[in-house]
Amino acid sequence: MSETSETFPAKEIQEKLSEFEMRVPVWGITVFTVDGYIIAHRLFYDGMPENVEMAVSAMSAGLITISEDFIKLVDSTNLFRQVLVDSEDAEGQEAFSIILKHVAENVLLTCIFPHSVQLGLVSFEIENLSRDIVEIVNRWEVKLHQDTMT
């Protein structure tokens, strides 16, 4: 294991996001803890508002909580895996999609991509990225924000 990955796991995840960007034309991707703390993010779309990753992680954490409640209501033995949200423009055409995914214990991922990118490609590459992130976080205990406060 390199000194960089031992010292800076977030940097290693950031590098994985850069590699992901080269394979998949998404608008943005954020890796964060279940309480909304951003571990790493990449934005590739100039139309995104500045500092959007903070709002995305907070709203994603809330949406995932609601999704978990729905899942428990239907079958309490199942766990949250992912949510797909599709948007449309004023003419009713698909505009972009958002995938919210559980990656590892306490670690989630949000990916925003235009409708022109195939969902299958994004899903496949997110699964591969998720496995890479799991390997990284398994070497690093991910603490929730409340656990790190003094």
Topology:
Layout: H1 3-7, H2 9-23, E1 28-33, E2 38-43, H3 52-74, E3 82-88, E4 94-104, E5 107-114, H4 119-138, H5 145-148
Helix pairs in contact: 2-4
Tell me about this structure:
With 150 residues, this protein is of the alpha+beta class. The chain has a single domain (3-140), classed as 2-Layer Sandwich (Beta-Lactamase). 45% of the residues lie in helices and 25% in strands. It has helices spanning 3-7, 9-23, 52-74, 119-138, 145-148, and strands at 28-33, 38-43, 82-88, 94-104, 107-114. A 5-stranded antiparallel sheet has the order 2-1-5-4-3, with helices on both faces. A hairpin with a 2-residue loop joins strand 4 and strand 5 (107-114). The model is unreliable at 1-7 (pLDDT under 50).
Assembly annotation: single chain
Which class of secondary structure composition applies to the elements?
alpha+beta
Q: Which architecture per CATH? A: 2-Layer Sandwich
Main CATH class? Alpha Beta
Number of separate helices: 5
Q: Flag low-confidence runs.
A: 1-7
Shape: globular
What is the average per-residue confidence, as pLDDT, rounded to a whole number? 85
CATH superfamily: Dynein light chain 2a, cytoplasmic
Main β-sheet, spatial strand arrangement: 2-1-5-4-3
Distance between the termini: 30 Å
- By DSSP, the count of extended strands is 5
Instruction: Summarize the helix and strand pattern as letters.
Output: HHEEHEEEHH
Percent of residues in β-strands: 25-35%
| CATH third-level topology | Beta-Lactamase
Q: How many domains? A: 1
Major beta-sheet overview:
5 strands, antiparallel
Report the radius of gyration as a whole number of Å.
16 Å
Helix content range: 40-55%
